[in-house]
Amino acid sequence: MRWRDMLRTVCWLLCCAPLSVAQDLVGLYLEWERDPTTTMVVNWVDLYPESSNTLLWRKEGASEWSTATAAHSVVAPSSLQRRQAHLTGLEADTRYEFAIGKAPDAKAQPLVFRTMPKDLSTRGLRFVNGGDTMATRERFEAMNRCSTALDPDFVLFGGDLAYEDGVKVSRVVAWLEAWTRTSVAKDRRVIPLVVGIGNHEVRGHFQGKAPQDAPYYYGLHVHENWRAFRALDFGSYLSLVLLDTNHTAPIEGEQTAWLASAMEQRANQQFLFPVYHYPAYGTTKAPKDLGPLDAPLSIAIRKHWVPLWEQHGISAAFEHDHHNWKRSHRIRAGQRDDAHGLLYLGDGSWGVLPRKVPENGTAWWLAKAEAKNHLWCVDLRANGTATIRALDVEGQVFDTVELTTARTQPKRSE
Fold it and tell me: What is the value of pTM for the model shown?
């Protein structure tokens, strides 16, 4: 880690972040294990086993602090120390102040987290999606600032975070520091993360074993029984279905069986977005003398997962890994279907160097594609409609798609 980066982070923590002067943090980030309307997981990472495990929190405007004792773990094989405090029984759509170790000075303004709304009747919900986040720290921070300026309720990453390959802890440290610096909105609100797994979280990239082949992903982030595939339900209005594209779990078999059950159980959820790393309808990484759709992982996703989405309906699928921007045509049964098809958005170019997209007219599945850094900004509304915008690193909107229904419906026989 460069000394200037360390100095900059420490200065930010001491001057701008009302935590604790004694808490020399590497990273601070929020996640969810269960329903985001009533829970929060506060994570902080440092280098010291003796640091405080105490989180203080209170509803904004309250005078008394409550305390929670964080679980403490060492993120092996490094010496990073992770604390995670699980808060439950919170009120929906409510701001809470929090501090680590001890209550801040009376003049200080603590950081804030906000729970998600119980439903969308009082306000809409906004989230941001991207993947393949950090080639360099500067690029990563630039896109983070663009995201934070949108004031999203949360950020959804589809894998390839620090590019640490399950080994390079210095990149994990840089990623955590950069996220901590750039994830606080103007109103002191720390923006939560929802994080999927990608090949660069894993030693060997594919067919790894959990957790040993992806120690930093499983050591730092919420997961379910040492599995990267899980569902996160926001009341009855939104489900995120996070999947593992053969990084620490095969696509077929147990994961597909789980997905079939998860989709059936969420038939009444208003919006539903699958989120995964390797794309079913990508833009690059083609086998020799073939196209992107001929890649074995793409074929497997279309064989095992896509039929379940076509059967049960989705809002859109978020894909990553190929380091470009793309919006697919609507696709069903392996062909363009503007009336009933599914929408695939990607392709993972948050903070990495873009690659090359197919020439116009050579990829039937692509409505638009460009080699550019981007994020997707999703605005959900109570009436089941949504606006999804693509923004570049300057914060400029360059593509918009409107969802007129919350989820696709099975195509009925004539």
Answer: 0.93
Give me the residue label for tokens 């679980």. 71
- CA–CA distances in Å: residue 352 to residues 127, 218, 375: 21, 23, 12
Question: What is the bridge-based pairing of β-strands 154-157 and 193-195?
Answer: parallel
SS3 per residue for 93-110: CCEEEEEECCCCCCCCCC
**CB within 8 Å of 61: residues ≥ 6 apart:** none
Residue 105 Cα to chain centre, angstroms: 33
The helix (run of H) or strand (run of E) holding residue 143 is helix 137-149
Whether residue 190 contacts residue 183, with contact meaning beta carbons closer than 8 Å, is answered with yes
Low pLDDT (below 50) residues in the chain: 1-22, 414
Could you say which DSSP state residue 312 is in? H
Q: How far is it, in rounded angstroms, from Cα 233 to Cα 241?
A: 9
Q: Which domains does the chain show, CATH number per domain?
A: 18-114 (2.60.40.380), 125-403 (3.60.21.10)
Alpha-carbon distances of 332 from 78, 328, 329, 337, rounded to whole Å: 45, 11, 10, 6
Dihedral sign for Cα atoms in the order 267, 272, 278, 283: positive
Of the candidates 157, 167, 161, 158, the residue with the CA atom closest to the CA atom of residue 204: 167
Q: Is the peptide bond preceding residue 77 cis, with omega within 30 degrees of 0?
A: yes
Beta carbons of 373 and 143 less than 8 angstroms apart: yes
Model pLDDT, residue 5: 43
| Omega before residue 132 within 30° of 0, cis | no
Is cis: bond before 358, omega within 30 of 0?
no
